[in-house]
Design a protein that fits this description.
about 25% strand, Quinone Oxidoreductase, Chain A, domain 1, Rossmann fold, seven-stranded mixed sheet, binds nicotinamide-adenine-dinucleotide, binds zinc ion, alpha/beta
Length: about 375
């Protein structure tokens, strides 16, 4: 069916209000305007940041279509788009790369000024939305909204990937893998023989563990309140597992006792002020590096003992692994990337089950929860989603 220049009616998951179950709705997706790309989504991962958005921890405008870890095919492009063409395989980017703002022009960071996360307008760059449902305007999330069979994103929020990319799995390369792996490899620069602690063994924490192991860390302590995460974490490289709920002392004291001096590298991948402080306090007093990847609720603050700062350790935040070019067209051909993806055994859900997928994502090793758009057998969209 020729959809070029036309509004497409398809299925999408909508969060109508804070902390509600997602509901599957028929939505209208307008054609892309200048500088925009319309994508037929093939699969999307579920990241902790989607969970935060649905729960209101990252404040978004309601109603919105969640999702940012997407893999799909370009359906059509707006005027002036040059980096992708219809039929290209692409990933969506939660943090765009405009390549001209003060953040993009500095190699030390990647939090592009054109991002729509903190704060979020829920709208495209021209201040309008491309989605409607039952005549009502629906907001975008992070200008990606991948929980839809079709979505529209700015060209700067899309990256072309190799034609051989496995579209059922590659979506996790869009956020969780580069965030966690990059935090260890690019941002912390974990060194061979070093000791590490990872707070939170979900999607991001698992990818951090992979990065620490790949960097040659000799000891990786994994901390989580959900012990169901431990077997998988051990398989990925965690050498010691700690459940803070079972400890009689603060977890940072346990980490210090286990290592004698505190760890060389500590990572926080939960998004809570108290675990950020625990990560900091777990570090070696002189050269320890504490990396924060978790996103906290608005107005959340933490305080550190001022004396613990002047001894030399480093506190660092990191966005999407700290690298502007991690998501690039070579990734699917890169041997290391193939190894990383090989660790993923996806739990597949289909779009109608997205709400249960989000609930399940909170319970299991979440990198592996992927929602597939295709195989949604509903009469009105069967033409558009043939695989
Ligand atoms: N900085 C970035 O670029 C970036 C990118 C993606 C996600 N994030 C953020 O990273 C964080 C983690 O995301 P995720 O996808 O891994 O989420 P996740 O839900 O998969 O993992 C979180 C883990 O933390 C554990 N946990 C919760 N409370 C805990 C506590 N008090 N002590 C110990 N463990 C606890 C949970 O059991 C779970 O295993 C979120 O805050 C998310 O928004 C940041
Ligand atoms: Zn994410
Ligand atoms: Zn920019």
């Amino acid at each position: 069916m020729d959809t070029l220049g036309k509004t497409i009616t398809c299925l999408a998951a909508i969060a109508w209000k804070t902390n509600s179950s997602l509901s599957l709705e028929e939505v209208q997706v307008e054609p892309p305007k200048a500088g925009e790309v319309r994508i037929k989504m093939i699969s999307t991962g579920i990241c902790g940041s989607d969970d935060h958005a649905i729960k209101g921890i990252i404040p978004l405008k309601y109603p919105f279509i969640p999702g940012h870890e997407g893999a799909g095919l370009v359906e059509s492009i707006g005027e002036g788009v040059s980096s992708v063409k219809p039929g290209d395989k692409v990933l969506t980017l939660i943090v765009p790369q405009c390549r001209e703002c003060s953040a993009c022009l500095n190699p030390k960071g990647n939090f592009c000024e054109k991002q729509d996360i903190l704060p979020s307008s829920g709208l495209m760059l021209d201040g309008t939305s491309r989605f409607t449902c039952k005549g009502e305007k629906i907001y975008h999330s992070f200008r990606t909204s991948t929980f839809s069979e079709y979505t529209v994103v700015p060209e700067i929020s899309v990256v072309k990937i190799d034609a051989a990319a496995p579209m059922d799995k590659i979506c996790v390369i869009s956020c969780e893998v580069p965030t966690g792996y990059g935090a260890a490899v690019h941002s912390a620069k974990v060194t061979p023989g070093s000791t590490c602690v990872v707070f939170g063994l979900g999607g991001i924490g698992s990818a951090i563990v992979m990065g620490c192991k790949a960097s040659g860390a000799s000891r990786i302590i994994g901390v989580d309140i959900n012990e169901e995460k431990f077997p998988r974490a051990r398989a990925l490289g965690v050498t010691d597992c700690l459940n803070p709920s079972n400890l009689k002392k603060p977890v940072q004291e346990a980490v210090k006792e286990m290592t004698g001096t505190g760890v060389d590298f500590a990572f926080e991948a939960i998004g809570l002020a108290e675990t950020m402080v625990a990560a900091w306090d777990s570090c070696h007093v002189s050269h320890g590096v504490c990396i924060i990847t978790g996103v906290s609720p608005p107005n959340s603050k933490f305080s550190l003992s001022a004396q613990t700062v002047s001894t030399g350790r480093t506190l660092k935040g990191v966005c999407l692994g700290g690298s502007a070019v991690f998501c690039c067209s070579e990734i699917p051909n890169n041997e290391k990337c193939k190894d990383i993806l090989g660790e993923f055994i996806p739990f597949l859900f289909h779009l109608p089950d997205c709400s249960s997928a989000v609930k399940r994502a909170a319970k299991i090793w979440k990198c592996s929860v992927i929602v597939k758009m295709k195989q949604v057998h509903l009469e009105f969209n069967s033409n558009k989603i043939a695989s």
